[in-house]
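Try this one yourself first.
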């Protein structure tokens, strides 16, 4: 490995040369307490910034073992270090001058969730942080003096203030570790107490706006109804009271704009941990929970939707159903079946985003249209069996359909963002009212076992001179937060609502390419299992299949991996 002084010499040697000469700097350089890796050099000052990383030996970094020995503590530490490095980088970004993206010094900007990312990893005996630098130029001529400032002044300052235990406020880091351990404790308690979710008193559930995930100022703090209150004694914070949502069927009712969907949104995001100050630090949901909705126009491939749809007039087999353009009811049926195949033990649904004809058929409609003439078995007739026979819980937001009161184990009313237990009131209102059909024959879980079309693992491209073609890896592109392309094939995941980070979308795109190269002809469940095993053994960067681990990848849940390949 070359030294930092050799880097300085090499840098000065290429000053005022054409921009491509920067590529000679690629490699690893020792800066004493850390190693600087110049992994990818941009070809032009107006192109995407160069990718660099710093690696600090774990002994040099000095973080105590309790910060990184467990998965949950390590993820919290990585998230904290990334955010801290990012704040330092922002101070220096664009302080070096030049054309195009000259002087950029940036890392991925995380949202409110604490997630495992390639941007910062504590593994293999080192703390590794990946970031971008815009190599400075005047026009397209190298400005080595400005890059020297970045590499020898700005980056060392960021490392010294962010990645060394001695420079980190001890109380602040201890708070990060304590919060991670408290959240892990709550998740274990969910299993022990047979709870689907927990919402702590004092949580701030409303968000700042539709485009901001920060907590709303002046929002009503959540408080549990006494009938559902559970007090957990956390290892660090001590006793915390909150609403324990028991496994089974729970309805969230109330008038419009009173907070029903806000509570459901907090529960669907509760599969992830959140940073301190978010307001949802102690809102935790079964990690397998899946938000289910109608998804008009989605592609369905070889799905078993026979639990909900049968006896089609065309005679098509609904145990192996495929379509390029599913209706609302068909897509919702497929989404439930695929969630069950992915191991979800909790379904989250909102009346607003569900297909009406899938959710319920009232008495008058059943009288006019005979059951044998209707291929759709309403979800109302399957929900109780899903819980009683398969152990799959349901949390459903209702605002206009009272039929679900008949099967609900608990009914929560949101009244001006205040939760009330109205189970007894709802059950009393049912007296003297005839119950609709609450079950249907032929209950079974979907068989699964579908294979995914992963053909075509490479593409041809004309050579630079245009005199022939060469094989190359499929190009991966992220198209916004919830869409990507692999080669010429695009995939839209906007209705997979628990994708919360653009890095998860990019990771899924890389997983698709990896699967096309290595897992063609496998079943969806085998593809998902192989990918998660690869990540666990070699890190998230392994799905890229190259020697350089890119920044910007964020780990999705197995449920989102299933959802991705089911739509591909």
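Now uncover the answer:
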């Amino acid at each position: 490995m070359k030294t930092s002084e050799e880097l300085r010499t090499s840098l000065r040697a290429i000053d005022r040369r054409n921009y491509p000469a920067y590529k000679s700097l690629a490699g690893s350089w020792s800066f004493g307490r850390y190693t600087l890796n110049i992994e990818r050099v941009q070809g032009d000052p107006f192109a995407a910034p160069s990718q660099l990383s710093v690696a600090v030996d774990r002994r040099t970094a000095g973080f105590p073992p309790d910060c990184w020995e467990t998965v949950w503590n390590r993820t919290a530490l990585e998230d904290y270090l990334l955010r801290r490095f990012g704040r330092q980088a922002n101070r220096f970004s664009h302080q070096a001058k030049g054309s195009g993206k000259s002087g950029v010094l940036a890392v991925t900007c995380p949202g409110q969730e604490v997630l495992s990312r390639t941007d910062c990893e504590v593994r293999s005996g080192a703390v590794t942080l990946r970031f971008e630098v815009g190599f400075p130029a005047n026009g397209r001529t190298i400005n080595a003096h400005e890059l020297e400032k970045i590499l020898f002044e700005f980056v060392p300052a960021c490392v010294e203030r962010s990645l060394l235990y001695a420079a980190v406020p001890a109380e602040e880091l201890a708070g990060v570790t304590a919060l991670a351990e408290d959240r892990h404790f709550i998740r274990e308690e969910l299993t022990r107490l047979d709870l689907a979710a927990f919402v702590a008193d004092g949580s701030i559930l409303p968000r700042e706006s539709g485009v901001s995930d920060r907590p709303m100022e002046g929002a009503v703090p959540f408080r549990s109804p006494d009938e559902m209150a559970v007090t957990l004694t956390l290892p660090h914070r001590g006793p915390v009271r909150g609403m324990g949502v028991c496994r089974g069927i729970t309805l969230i009712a109330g008038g419009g704009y009173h907070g029903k969907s806000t509570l459901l949104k907090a529960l669907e995001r509760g599969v992830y941990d959140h940073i301190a100050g978010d307001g949802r630090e102690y809102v935790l949901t079964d990690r397998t929970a899946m938000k289910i909705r109608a998804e008009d126009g989605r592609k369905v491939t070889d799905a078993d939707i026979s639990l909900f749809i049968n006896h089609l007039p065309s005679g098509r087999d609904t145990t192996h159903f495929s379509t390029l353009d599913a209706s609302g009811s068909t897509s919702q049926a497929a989404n439930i079946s695929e969630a069950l195949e992915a191991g979800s033990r909790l379904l989250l649904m909102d009346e607003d985003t569900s297909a009406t004809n899938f959710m319920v058929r009232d008495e008058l409609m059943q009288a006019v249209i005979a059951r044998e003439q209707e291929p759709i078995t309403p979800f109302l007739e399957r929900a109780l069996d899903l819980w009683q026979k398969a152990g799959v819980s349901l949390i459903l937001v209702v605002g206009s359909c009272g039929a679900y009161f008949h099967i609900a184990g608990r009914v929560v009313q949101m009244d001006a963002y205040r939760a009330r237990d109205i189970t007894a009131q709802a059950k009393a209102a049912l007296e003297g009212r005839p119950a609709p059909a609450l079950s249907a024959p032929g209950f079974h879980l979907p068989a699964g076992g579908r294979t995914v079309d992963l053909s075509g693992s490479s593409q041809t491209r004309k050579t630079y001179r245009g005199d022939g073609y060469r094989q190359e890896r499929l190009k991966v592109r992220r198209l916004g937060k919830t869409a990507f392309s692999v080669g010429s094939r695009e995939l839209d995941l906007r209705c997979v609502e628990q994708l919360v980070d653009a890095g998860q979308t990019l990771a899924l795109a890389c997983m698709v390419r990896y699967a096309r190269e290595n897992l063609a002809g496998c079943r969806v469940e085998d593809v998902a299992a192989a990918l998660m095993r690869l990540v666990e053994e070699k890190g998230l960067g392994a799905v890229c299949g190259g020697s350089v681990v890119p920044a910007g990848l964020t780990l999705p849940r197995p449920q989102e991996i299933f959802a991705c390949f089911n739509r591909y």
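Discussion: Residues 458-567 form one domain. The mean pLDDT is 94.
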